[in-house]
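Summary for the lay section of the report: proteins are chains of building blocks that fold into shapes. Here we show the chain for Thermonuclease family protein and then a coded description of the shape we predicted for it.
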Amino acid sequence: MVDGDTIRVGGETIRLHGIDAPELRQTCGDVPCGARSRDRLAAIIGGQAVQCAGRERDRYRRLVAVCRVAGVDIAGQLVSEGWALAYVRYSRDYLAEETRARRQRLGMWATEFVPPEEWRRGGR
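The coded shape description reads as follows.
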């Protein structure tokens, strides 16, 4: 795992399509949400085979893909548990999962946090 929304599979760096996870060093209140997001991603994969369907490459040349483990959409699982946000700038695929996580105050939603995109721009 690189971070909460980027993995390496067979030497390829893959950005999970449609989500934005906290940056590795990002905190949400006192919670190290960036590290927790990455750790949850690792747990979801759990050493299992990952199947990815690539869509395009991002500006960092990472393959942007929908990835699954044992039939489970990894990105959707992260969003539904509150460890990533639906990245609506690029996709509206995970809005329902985000809404449920927010209502249930799961993961990042259990505390105050700055959206990852804003945090990267310096809104820390």
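Put simply, here is one thing we learned. The longest strand covers residues 50-57.
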